């Protein structure tokens, strides 16, 4: 459990920590792109930056990361990304931060992204306590820059249609109906609810049971683009690991 020293006690001890004056941080940015396009670009950026996620909630349009330890020379790096409280003769040897990223749909063609960054530092010499540190906006700007770059590289979405890349084959192979062990052909397309790195989440009904290690075909516009194997079954929510040469999106379907 993190220990926070009450200010009155610090005053009594003669080593009170005082907050450093901070400059305002611009933690939101509006992009001239649809909500869906920005959401998918954020998924790619989070994966590229290797940000560990605590939760991804598409209904509330929010990403919440796990706490990330600040590596290297912590005192120097903490100074680069945050304003530390003033602690006389203090030494900072631990720090961590986490993201809460929320999307706001302004219109069909505009989406605002807001980043709430929580930064905490541990002073180890004088107070031996954790302190909240105000962001300088460095980490927020780094993520915005990568998101802008990702959106700039993406293709126009009029209409939104996944294209067929060809990393290992000249043309996608027409997908075939799945054949279960009983010989029964089933080609029910299931929508992909979420995509995180090489895993997808689908929601099923009690009429479409799945079990761990079952493998199914992924399809895009009638073409097979890979397979997905069940790794976890939680009532009607199924997590599957993807094997594919293509970047899977929620526009693709799982053939069951």
Structure described in brief:
The chain has about 260 residues and is α+β, with helices and mostly antiparallel strands. About 20% of the residues lie in helices and about 40% in strands. The chain contains 4 helices and 16 strands.
What brief labels describe this structure?
alpha+beta, 256 residues, 6-stranded antiparallel beta barrel
Please characterize this protein's 3D structure.
The chain has 256 residues and is an alpha+beta fold. It is 18% helix and 38% strand. Strands 1, 2, 3, 4, 5, 6, 7 and 8 form an 8-stranded antiparallel sheet that branches. Strands 11-12-15-14-13-16 form a 6-stranded antiparallel barrel. A hairpin with a 5-residue loop joins strand 9 and strand 10 (185-186). The longest helix is centred in the middle third of the chain and has 16 residues, at 138-153. The chain is elongated and about 70 Å long. Mean pLDDT is 80; it is low at 5-15, 157-166 and 168-186.
